[in-house]
Amino acid sequence: MEAILILGFGLVVVLIVVFICVGMIKNFSGAIERRQESLFNMLSSQQDSIRNTISAGLSIQEERFKTFAVENEQKLDQIRKTVSSGLSDIRTDNNKKLDEMREIVDEKLQDSVSRSFRAVNERLEQVYKGLGEMQSLAAGVGDLKRVLTNVKTRGILGEIQLGAILEEIFAPEQYETNCRVKPDSREAVEYAVKIPSAEDDSFVYLPIDSKFPGDTYEKLLDAYDTGSKEAVDAAAKELIARIKAEAKDIRDKYIAPPYTTEFAVLFLPFEGLYCEAVNRGLVEELQRRYRVNIAGPSTMAAFLNSLQMGFRTVAIQKRSSEVWEVLGAVKTEFEKFDTVLESARNRIRQADDDLERLVGTRSNAIRRKLRSVTALSSDSAENLLGDSYEN
Fold first, then answer.
1. Is it the case that residue 166 has pLDDT exceeding 70?
2. Of 61, 273, 294, 347, which one's alpha carbon is 20 to 30 angstroms from that of 46?
């Protein structure tokens, strides 16, 4: 029975606890619902506030954007006006500069055209003058051609040209004109160069003769103009024979060792004539058969210059012994001079030692003696010594 009562009491207690828990759960659920409702209201109010804030911000941004767009439009309008004004100024300035440049170009063009016309006129005048001079020159050439047809005149021309070359290179005492190189002969060569001896003051002659076979050379030139090989060969053969005859004549008349050198020189006064002789192989043949060298104006100058250098070498060799004697005398005098100079240096050294003793020892002794003497002022010393002090 007691167990039943205890069990019933326990059941009652459990029911009471259950009822209490159910009440608490209901109260907690109500509180949660109220809390949820409060949170929902709070969130709703916050969302409204945020929405209002965002709307206000968007409105402000929209107003700012509108203001910015208006300002940009105004600035763009101002920039457009400024650029348009600047372009207009640039266009105006460019037009002015183009007008100035056009005027300058027109002036320079007119000036240049005027100068060109003047230059062309001057050139035409010079051409006219040159044509006149050419006509005069052509007449002079005709006169020269008529002169050269004379054999004697051609010889004189070659002789004058050879004399001019010799006069330019040699001193007057180094050659002779119209010289008789053979003692017993009446034949006189046009020019003879004096070749000095290396041993003494004697010399031998180098005969130089000028030849100008102008008629045969002119025939050769005419043959070249015709273009005929036969005519050229015939004229060249005649010219070769003429030059060989002249070389033989020079050998027979003017080469006479020991009074002359063992060879002579044949001078051809025109380079074209000399080139023909060289091209025809006459240089070696004339040297071998007649002991005669041929030379043109340019080669003659080179040959004479080489002779002049040889003369200077011979003169130096002659003077070399005198130079050595002078150097020996200078060496002897220099040894004497060295002895005298050493003696003078010893005397100067002795005088320097004497001055050192005088300035050093004696000056110190005098200073020691004068230490007890009171020095006077400059004015007192000047009044006392007077003129001697000033001197």
1. yes
2. 61
| CA distance linking residue 241 with residue 248, whole number of Å | 10
Q: How high is the pLDDT of residue 143?
A: 44
Q: Give me 226's structure tokens.
A: 């015709």
User: Which among 136, 12, 170, 16 has a CA at the least distance from the CA of 4?
Assistant: 12
Strand partners, 267: 210, 295
- What is residue 184's three-state secondary structure? coil
The whole-angstrom separation of Cα 71 and Cα 66 is 9
H helices within the chain, ranges in order?
2-148, 151-169, 214-226, 229-254, 271-279, 282-290, 297-357, 363-369, 378-385, 387-390
Under a CB-based contact definition with an 8 Å cutoff, are residues 381 and 389 in contact? yes
Q: What is the CA radius of gyration of the chain?
A: 66
Does the pLDDT at position 157 exceed 80? no
Average pLDDT over residues 220-231: 86
Q: CA torsion, points 207, 307, 268, 184, in degrees to nearest 10?
A: 0
Note the pLDDT tens digit of each residue in 293-323.
998 888 888 888 888 887 777 666 655 556 5
258 prior amide bond cis, ω within 30? yes
The angle at the Cα of 171, spanning 169 to 177, to the nearest 5 degrees, equals: 95
Query: Of 149, 293, 328, whose CA–CA distance to 207 is shortest?
Result: 293
Closest Cα to residue 192, out of 173, 211, 205? 205
How many CB atoms are closer than 10 A to CB 155?
A: 17
Asked if 192 contacts 250 with a C-beta cutoff of 8 angstroms, the reply is no
Kindly state the tokens that stand for 40.
């929902």
247 in Cβ contact with 303 (< 8 Å): no
Share of the chain above pLDDT 70, in %: 71
What burial letters (b/e) apply to 201-240, b meaning 16+ CB within 10 Å? eeebbbbbbbbbbbebbebbeebeeeeeeebbeebbebbb
Which stretch of 141-150, 256-265, 281-290 has the lowest confidence by average pLDDT? 141-150
Strands 189-196 and 203-210: antiparallel
Q: What is the pTM of this model?
A: 0.45
